């Protein structure tokens, strides 16, 4: 089993670098988040009692964006990294309707802290650190924790279906970094190679993950947007 404590995310320096640089090296990051927010606006925002869960929340950027447009009743942020959760707390402030839980996905699966369900479960760029069987277990866990009509939206890297496509997608990624402002981009040009060489990254194909969701029982399973190796996909209960 992939253990969070042995991953690079347990290293505070690594997570700080992500917080500093993700906007520069993640292609179309804001577009992916906007699509997730549009999904929320269309399917969930009419529910004034909506409960939201962000799995692998990082520094809480997505939830901050969500709160700028919508008013869910209750938000829960989960991350394996105490440093990330502290950054999320600093960004979102102390609020009675937001709770922060430090737990790895493996810990959630082993000792579930949640008795209740959620109307919207979001995760970005975190689940690809799990092995295939763990992804399946986590997707099943997410399904069990969705209220009827609830939705899961997942933005993550996926494994291309051929080496040729992967080569092109990684070059698209480098090109995107190369178009960022001078001074910021230089040391980040190798991020795609570092991503590829880092054994913590264990993406599965989009097709395999959509099939997992369908097998578990999710409805309306689809990919809502894709750019190179980055995809936004999910399903509802
Ligand atoms: C690339 S960052 C993404 C953060 C945030 N979702 C975003 O989009 O900016 C990955 C996050 O997942 C968390 N993470 C990675 N593996 C995890 C695991 N097994 N259990 C819980 N959190 C994990 C890391 O601590 C980190 O905050």
Description:
This protein is an alpha/beta fold and 237 residues long. The chain has one domain: Rossmann fold (3-Layer(aba) Sandwich). The protein is built from 9 helices and 7 strands. It has helices at residues 12-25, 29-43, 61-69, 82-92, 105-110, 132-144, 163-178, 191-197, 206-216; strands at residues 51-55, 74-79, 98-102, 118-124, 146-157, 219-227, 230-236. A 7-stranded mixed sheet has the order 3-2-1-4-5-7-6, sandwiched between helices. Helix 6 (132-144) crosses helix 9. The two termini are 28 Å apart. The mean pLDDT is 96. S-adenosylmethionine binds next to helix 1 and helix 5.
In short:
With 237 residues, the chain is α/β, with parallel strands linked by helices. The protein has helices spanning 12-25, 29-43, 61-69, 82-92, 105-110, 132-144, 163-178, 191-197, 206-216, and strands at residues 51-55, 74-79, 98-102, 118-124, 146-157, 219-227, 230-236.
Which SSEs are present, and which pair or pack?
Blueprint: H1 12-25, H2 29-43, E1 51-55, H3 61-69, E2 74-79, H4 82-92, E3 98-102, H5 105-110, E4 118-124, H6 132-144, E5 146-157, H7 163-178, H8 191-197, H9 206-216, E6 219-227, E7 230-236
Parallel strand pairs: 1-2, 1-4, 2-3, 4-5
Antiparallel strand pairs: 5-7, 6-7
Bound molecules: S-adenosylmethionine.
- Indicate the mean pLDDT: 96
**Order of adjacent strands in the largest pleated sheet:** 3-2-1-4-5-7-6
Number of domains: 1
- Structural class, please? alpha/beta
Strand content: 15-25%
